[in-house]
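Quick one: C-alpha cells for this chain, please?
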Amino acid sequence: MSILSGKNVLLGITAGIAAYKTASLVRLFIKSGAQVKVVMTPASKDFITPLTLSTLSKHPVYSSFTNEEDDNAVWNNHVDLGLWADVFVIAPATANTMSKMANGTSDNLLLATYLSAKCPVYFAPAMDLDMYKHESTRVSFEKLKSFGNIMIPATSGELASGLVGEGRMAEPEDIVSFIESDILNKLPLKGKKVLITAGPTYEAIDPVRFIGNHSSGKMGFEIAKASANLGAEVILVTGPTHQNLVHSLVKVVPVTSAEEMYQEVHKYYKTIDVAILSAAVADFKPKAVALQKIKKKSDTLRLELERTKDILASLGETKTKQFLVGFALETNNELENAKQKLKKKNLNLIVLNSLQDKGAGFKGDTNKVTFIDNKNNVTEFQLKSKAEVAEDLLNEIVKHIHA
C-alpha cells in the first residue's frame, strides 16, 4: 500500500507537450490507491483529451468555470476543488502557468483552484532548454518555492525542439515516487519503529481444539495502518484473525499462541520506539496438551490450566526508551482498574474500554475509549469507528513522544 492510498490527488495539466504523459500519471496515482480528479487549462486540451483523462480517473475533467456544453451552465467551484484535494500536482507546469502562479494571476480554472488550495502543491516544470534557463523562469521557481510549493525537478534529455538538455518533465513514475518520498519524510513517525500486537491467541487443548476469545483483531490492524500512514516502520504481531493489511511499511508476523506472541514481541522489542499491545492474549492455557484428539468418554471434561506469560508486564520490566501502550477491557470499576494496570505494568499510556458501553469491545467496527497517561491525565472520547480511534491514539502518542 502506498502512502498515497486513500488520498485525494488533484492533477493540474497545462499546455505543454509533456501533457501526453499525464494519462500514465493518472493511472499510477490510481494504482497507488488515490482518488484522482483532473483540472486542465483550456489550451492543454490540444495535447491530450479530457475524455481520455475522465475515462482513466473515473471523474469529470474540469477546464472552465462552467460546463460550456451544458445549457444549464453548472458552476465548477474552484474553491471546492481546492479544498477536496489532499495533494495538488501541476504537471506539466509550463513557464507561462508558473509565471501566473508566482504573480497571483487567475485567468483560468486551474489558476483559481491553485490560489484556493490549502494542501501541499507540487509542480513539475516542462519546457524547452532556453526557456528553462531563462532568468524569468528561475525567478518563478524561487517565488513558488518561497510560497511553500514543492518543485519536482525537470530532467535532462531530448526535448520537443530537438535540443538535448534540461527542461524535460520528470517521468510519471518518478513524479509519484518523489511525492511519496516527500510526504513520507515529513510524517511525524518517520524513522520510528512501532510494534503492535493484535487479535486473540489460541491455546491448544488437543490437535483440533483450543481455548480462545472473541477478539477480531480489527483494532490492532487499524492501529497498524494509522501508524504506517504517519511514516512508522511497523511490526504487527497478530494472532489468528480474518483481518488483512498490505502496506509497504508494515511487516505482519502471524502467531497462534500466547507463548509464540511473547517470543516474537521480545525478538523485536529492543529496537522499538513505540509498542502498542492491543491483542487479547489468553491469561491461561491448558497445563498439558493432548497429543491425540480427546474422545467423548464422559459428560464432563476437566482441564488444568496454568498462567500464560504476561507479555505487557514483561515489556514494562525491561523498558528503556520505548513508549509503551497497553489496553484494558473492563466490565466494572473500569477507571480504577485501568489506572492500577497502568502503574503495575509500567506503561506510558493505557487505552480503556468497557463492555458496559454499547458499540465497544470485540468484533464490532466501533469503539468507545478513554486514554490515561502515566501523569494521570484522563481523556474520554465518544463512540467512534475503530479507524478514528486508531488515529486519536496515534495523535496522542505523537504528542507525547515529541513533547
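The chain has two domains: 8-186, 193-293+301-402.
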